[in-house]
Amino acid sequence: MKGRRGLIMGVANDHSIAWGIARTLAAHGAELAFTYQGDALGRRVRPLADSVGSSLVLPCDVEDLATVDATFAKLEEAWGGLDFVVHAIGFSDKNELKGRYSDTTRENFSRTMVISCFSFTEIAKRAAAMMKPGGSLVTLTYGGSTRVMPNYNVMGLAKAALEASVRYLAADYGPLGIRVNALSPGPVRTLAGAGISDARLMFNFQKRHAPLRRTVSIDEIGGSALYLLSDLSTGVTGEIHYVDSGYNIISMPHPEALKTLDAAEQAVEEAETRSRGQAAE
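The line above is the sequence of Enoyl-[acyl-carrier-protein] reductase [NADH]; the predicted structure tokens follow.
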């Protein structure tokens, strides 16, 4: 990645997936710029940027296109061009991630889609205008895009739309020699993940039942991003690349785990039956 310059969007702290990607890219010689939303996140991002030698740390709110345009104007002024972008931005009202998807409000649906999905299209359009053949764009998705995940609701739809946009953007920009892909990591203990109810339980479940019997680290995700953003993957575009210890291939837990779950559910049912019987007496 030496001699390549790229924008990292979505770092919240040193546990962020975007930071794992940034750290890996910097270790392989990339020159980085960062964006942040709000002063609180800015105070977290600046020291991280400093640690990888980056002085370009820019405010950007994807709901405010003026700030998006200003970000790319600054990059144009500082660098004159761009080699890659990492888009790691998503948002939904955490109160609406609980309960039923059908109870999602129109307001939150629209806002979730704009921030978590359409912002990538708006970023890609501006980034591609600064790129030469060989440019690469990567966004982050999640398995809730194709399968129902508890407490994910409208974010699942936003990620499904994001994945579709990856394919359409890949078709748009492929003739220009610009590649567009997505990473789909397994659950990681991040600030964003903390907004999902019972995240710890789902984290542990996937850890137990993934083929590798473990979760992934942000550095492993960074390694996959390095592949997609470098010349190692010049023939790859429009892809959803899973980094989840293989969990995406599993349809059902292994038999021993099913027996354990069944026994636990039977014990709960028996306890509830006894409780109802005592209450009736």
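Note on the example: The radius of gyration is 21 Å. The helical segments are 17-27, 39-51, 65-79, 106-128, 154-173, 199-209, 218-229, 255-280.
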